[in-house]
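Q: Can someone sanity-check these two? First one:
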Amino acid sequence: MEVNEIMAELKAMGSDSIKKILLKHGVKEPFFGVKVEYLKTIQKKVKTNYQLAKDLYATGNADAMYLAGLIADDEKMTKDDLQTWVKLAVSNNIGEYTVPWVTAGSRYGFELACEWINNKEEHIAASGWSTLSNTVALKPDDELDLKVLKDLLTRVEQTIHTAANRVRYTMNGFVISLGAYVAALSDDAIAAANKIGTVTVDMNGTACKIPAAAEYIQKNLARGKPFAKKKTVKC
């Protein structure tokens, strides 16, 4: 499939009602309002395609950008590719899901995440924390820098309540991911979560709630497969 063909299909699959919901959740124009299940039907046809993913992302259409993340060949993504993607990721679903998924699966995940969390742009910093969350969920513990991760946990504990809105959201996610997927730091993450307490995030009037990190970690560990890594973070 080519970009023009896919864009025509996305337009046909678009829904005004879905679009209204996505707008409330921080997705920004332009986009058609396509359900993820429909995007996955295209993903099954295309499978993995590095260049097509880049071309779809470059359209700036949020539906196409999400699809780009699903079909991206993460290992082929260059550092420049990923830097371009994060700059354009102004929609919450792209900045906090699509870009972190692909970056975590690339050769530059941890490096770029540590760079992005220091960015003054809220959406880039949020992408950085989400990339860290996905990285620790994917990578074996012996491939992770546990000292840096523990230092970052301390940073979250000290700064989360004064961070930008979506950064607070993704920082909280980082604490959860660290506690659920990294055995050596699970107790530290729970302790930090208890010190942090309630995290307040403006969810723009939606019914979405911010998970209580300590409770969420403990529930995850009680499911029978504590610290089991994910095979993929894309969904």
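And here is the second, same format, sequence then tokens:
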Amino acid sequence: MQMGKLQQQLCEWRHQQRKAFAVLIDPDKVTLKQVAQIAELCNEAGVDYVFVGGSLMMSQHLDACIQQFKRESAIPVLLFPGSPAQVSPYADALLYLSLISGRNPELLIGAHVVSAPMVKASGLEILSTGYMVIDGGAATTVSYMSGSAPIPRDKNDIAMCTAMAGEMQGKHIIYMDAGSGAKLPITEGMIQSVSRKISIPLIVGGGITDPEKAYLNCKAGADIIVVGNAIEKEASLIRDMAAAVRQGGVKA
């Protein structure tokens, strides 16, 4: 399969050691007016990507959120789906998540079989993503719904081997997530262990509440930092987080 535009960009940026910042928008937690405000802040801060999605999607206005954002911004929108139903043709790409840290076959391949025709017909760029849930000190919706335990936060070897397996299976991206509202972020040691053993882009999210943590995660080897919960509480953090991520990359 030919490499898509965003996949190519992500791979090039990893090679260049250029770091990226993504803002996560959960349609269940925002109004369309707030989406427009977030878009303005993202434009001003030079945010690289916006991820849109949520675990349950009770609001049923996924399409409207993406359309509203795109009216205000040219920043690429990537779907971060909690279920196969969360597909929108208005986005630019889909993180096609396979929960490689779990042992539930439904989230490894079952849901993908069900969603494949719809995903194929969407016309979206598909980014095959090895999704790894890391213990963040609090129960996550993903772990509860999947019936799978997260990787213990002190087991760097398990995380490293899981990511390596994902890459060798053909995943385009590895996404390590401590989960929404995590009390403890993923350690720099685990990020470093994983980043050194894979050649594909590494996304890190969950529990990143301040710019210093975003910076340290980048220095440890994260290619993309994702922040959602902290920004929902204080949208002005977008500017400071984006600046910290840029500082975490190679100096021009």
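A (reply): Looked at the second one. The beta strands are 20-25, 49-52, 77-79, 93-99, 125-133, 173-177, 202-205, 224-227. The mean pLDDT is 93.
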